[in-house]
Amino acid sequence: MNAANEVAPRSPAFNVDRLLDDRSIRIIVCCGSGGVGKTTTAAAMALRAAERGRKVVVLTIDPARRLAQSMGLTELDNEPRLVLGTTGDGTLSAMMLDMKRTFDDFVEANAEPERAATILANPFYQSLSSSFAGTQEYMAMEKLGQLRAFADSTGAWDLIVVDTPPSRSALDFLDAPRRLGSFLDGRFIRLLAAPAKAGGRAYLKLLSAGFGVFTSILGKLLGGQVLSDVQAFVGSVDTLFGGFRERADETFAMLQADDTAFVVIATPERDALREAAYFVERLETESMPLAGLVLNRVASTDIPELDATTSIASAHRLDAESDGRTSALLRIHAERASALDRQRRLAERFTSAHRKVAVSTVPAMAADVIDLDSLRAVGAALSAHGHSTKGG
Amino acid sequence: MRAPHRADRSWGTYPQDVPAPNDIDWDGVRLHVVTGKGGTGKTTVAASLAIALATGGKRVLVLEVEGRQGLAQLFDVPPLPYAERRVAIAPDGGEVFANAVDPQEALLEYLEMFYNLRRAGTALRKMGAIDFATTIAPGVRDVLLTGKAKEAVRRKVDGVLAYDAVVMDAPPTGRIARFLNVNSEVAGLARSGPIRTQADAVMDVIGSPLTAVHIVTLLEEMPVQECADGVADLVEAGLPVGGIIVNQVRRPLLNADSQTAALAGTWDRDTICADLIRAGVLTPSGTLVGSSDIPADHLIDSLLLEAREHAERLALEQRERATLRSLSRPIYELPYLSDGVDVGSLYEFAEELRGQGMA
Asked: For chain B, N or C: smaller number of CB within 10 Å?
């Protein structure tokens, strides 16, 4: 008996193993709204792919402490580390994204030491690299690009699995880098930066007094230092980044390539499914290939024949006369059976609008992931659905 | 009046080692900031708390600061403008107003106030200047947002406070201390000028007993960890930590003895079998009523497995609850609603929060 058939009976089965075994796939992006188990799913898929013979690196973002420990990640050092204890011919490396470190590394790798030091010390750079909305998404993409380049040049990995930053909206992952890119590449910031460059002066003069008035107000509002920090920053990184927007566009294009597959992750809850639906539609618009939907924390039961109503009525009948244990068993089952009913109704709304989307379901696990074995169990559950229905 | 039913609520247990709250735990607090890990139900709790605080003829304003229109969805009203609109009536004549605060609008308001530049605002916006100013340094954005909360707390109409309380649906726990601690945020930014002055005025309210920062969590590892980290961050920043609201608490269906037995697998199958026959679940010949192909053994195995998994989840929740207790803050609990949250649930939650002394 499989929960998947119960919750999304009419959807095609998402054959996760076929995806993991497909050597033409080089990048798997796991996305979904916050709190749906994205990181765990990414880690479980990566482990399973490695144990099926692939050389995998998984980029996790903000993993739960115990999940990180289960893969031997004890510190956030922004470098992939080989995970020990995997079986088979493949390998698994895992890393946690440190967005500030990624940004710093990038600056240090691309500017001569003196200039890099100036940039790193710039207060505007410091707030940009640690707390800007969109920086985490931008840096996740940047890191993905780096891993890809390294994989291509060294052959260290043939599959990169990426987790995406936690956010209310799954779409942020696609939009935030370009938003940040446009902002940093925007007209106003360039105007501000203009005095730092010789050619900019004349242009600025042409802009009339309006601009000057505003910069002076801005200076008063924010403090004059801010503007000069921004000017110094933009002036010093301008050539370095080859344009923020351009760079964001490049990584975006990488996600549209044939060797990238998206896995959308949700739980059978209203909000998570709504976000998943937005994301699925968006992927279609952007011609980005969707491999399937993973539904996490699905209620499951081995005895669907005993429904919630019968179960609770029988528990009531027993309450008066027994010590309550058997009635507790029936109540526990009734709670599950009704959760399953509710989840089926919610999933139905998604699946009827997206009939072609393949679905894999993972039953709610009583315990957290604490070691490779429990991560392996998640991977097995992810793949169980595809297998059980493959023949049929 | 202390809620008499607190100890015997069916779906949760109030931690006994935390000092029992006063009649109303947050007397004197006028700004309730509600934070929590994403996905824990911050907005739901903020809305419910607003109704709870408004109950009995009070006026309460609830502020949204992340531009998601979560409040409008919850209260089932059209998207909120940057204006204070009444969104709900509380029991016994209270009123709840809501406002979706937009930093760009707030900045334009400022420019008008200090420089009489409202009309130039459109031009500045086109130029990307407003976007720039509200994005350039997270501090400025936060000063504008918290500034609206401060203004609403202080506002008087004809010498009377405009609102009895203000509730803010705040950014997630990971960012809350930095968001509220605007003073240090703008310290390196504006050494003088209106933003600086504003930051000081905001801190006069947010750093004072007028404010309490409540944290919403679930009984799961990550949210509880973030809650603990959030309390530590707030304490370090010298910000007033409020209560902890445990959301989506599910009713335990096993008592302590049964939980142990379920984990150990020591339940007596014969008794269960007899009970199931008596309850009409099994036929006397030992198959599921209505499905003769399901034998008693399979049914009992499955029920016991489900019970063990339930017991494991309870054990996990008990560990998380212990971590929350160790934070020594008042704890409130809201039940899990299997059919999701709607406007009616907000009133139910408001009643719970009042019953538990939060409002």
From this structure: N
For residue A359, give how far its alpha carbon lies from the nearest alpha carbon of chain B (Å): 23
Which pair of tokens denotes residue A247?
């760079």
B193 to chain A: which residues are within 8 Å by CB?
220-223
Classify the complex by whether its ipTM is higher than 0.90, answering yes or no.
no
- A305 in contact with chain B, both atoms CB, cutoff 8 A: yes
CATH number, domain with residue A258: 3.40.50.300
Longest CA–CA span in chain A (Å) reads 93
| Spans of chain B below 70 pLDDT | 1-23, 116-120, 127, 136-138, 185-193
Mean pLDDT, contiguous 10-residue spans, chain A (392 residues)? 65 95 96 87 97 96 83 82 94 93 86 88 82 79 90 96 80 77 70 54 50 68 71 72 71 88 93 89 91 94 94 89 85 93 92 93 82 94 64 31
| CATH numbers and ranges of domains, chain B | 31-252+318-355 (3.40.50.300), 256-312 (no CATH)
Q: Write out the two tokens for A188.
A: 């106003």
Number of domains in chain A: 1
Residue B302: its chain A contacts at CB < 8 A? 301-303, 333
Q: Give the nearest chain B residue to A189 (CA atoms).
A: B132
Cβ–Cβ contact A327 with B under 8 A: yes
Q: Which domain holds residue A228?
A: 3-390
pTM comes to: 0.83
> Within 13 Å, how many C-alpha atoms sit on residue A90's CB side?
21
Best CA proximity match to A33, nearest among A274, A235, A391, A241: A274
CB proximity list for B197: less than 8 A, separation 6 or greater: none
B288 with A327: Cβ contact below 8 A: no
CA–CA min distance B164, chain A (Å): 31
User: Which residues in chain B have their CB less than 8 angstroms from residue A335's CB?
Assistant: 253
> Of the candidates B175, B192, B309, which has its C-beta nearest A223's C-beta?
B192
- The nearest CA of chain A is from the CA of B27 a distance in Å of 33
Burial of A387 (0-12, 13-18, 19+ CB in 10 A): middle
Q: Tell me which residue in A221, A303, A328 faces B195 most closely, judged by beta carbons.
A: A221
Task: Tell me the count of A-B CB pairs closer than 8 A.
Answer: 183
Q: Where are the alpha helices (DSSP H) in B22-137?
A: 42-54, 70-75, 103-115, 120-126, 129-136
One-letter amino acid for residue B125 of the chain: R
Closest CA to B33 of B177, B140, B204: B177
